[in-house]
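subagent[fold] <- orchestrator: predict structure for attached chain, return tokens only, no commentary.
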Amino acid sequence: MYPRSFTGLSTNTWMTMLPLRICIHTAMTTAQPTAINSSPLSEGAETKLGIRTEGAVIRRSELRATFALQEGRTIMTDRYYSAPLRFSRSFRPPGNSNGLCLYTSDVSPGVLNGDHYHSEWHLGEGTHVMLSSTSATRLHPTPSLPSSVNHHFQIRKGAVLEYFPECVIPFKGSSSSLTATFHLEEQAILAYADVWSAGRIHRGEAFEFSKYRNSTEIWQGDQLAVWDRFGMEPTRDDPQKSAALLDFTHTAALWMIAPGLGTAELENIRAALPPDGRMLAGASLLASGGIGVRLLGMAAWELQEQCLHIWNTIRPQLLGNENLTFRK
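subagent[fold] -> orchestrator:
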């Protein structure tokens, strides 16, 4: 349904800036900290911070976290981050003493020329994590080197992940990609909202980025439940002629995977969708079980609120908890 499709994403991470050599690895248990093994980049590039190759310096910022269930409560057992990514805060939300709510942040202005952000999340069996970010993912201009953001989640048996990050905003002159990959074991539950803006709309920058690519994959065991690609090059793909965007400047996708989701839950979600007007929305069942929702709108905050509202129509039934809210 999108103007261009991509079968793969480039993760070129060359850059010309020296990295901030700040790295924190905090073991939350008495066990030996887990070794961090960076996943390989495309084109054979090395992944260590500060490696110089062919006149360019690679800067890779990483964030990793592991969660386990101890005495019936979700705790973070291991964590690692390198600037500018960091963990902002974690707490027990009201009405859910067993789950853990966590915010991440970027202490830099945003994703800069040639930056490569990479995060890995491991949710142990039976854990429950509510995850968000403190600010939008700001994709700055990339005059010489593309940038990328990659998230990878491993969700073990019976674990729950509710991931509602802030909006992704590609700035004028940016060439960037964002990928999110989820691997779910049996009885795992996922709610993921992906909200995107066509630029800094309030500054008149709609569709002035050079290129943007987005990829979402959700696996249930060995079965691919969601394979979603979105890509646009405004100089080649005229947004005014896009049947996927119509006259809207913001999009959102909400993916909900849980055992037993079916037509009854779908009808409840459809009843909660906004009426046609400022937003346009639709929902359908996934072939492997689960529900997908698409929304178009004119403001990120409206789509974010709508995604939470939709999820909260079935959350109490699935999790036995009150509605989910994020206070920042």
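orchestrator: received. Logging for downstream: The radius of gyration is 19 Å. Confidence is low (pLDDT under 50) at residues 1-53.
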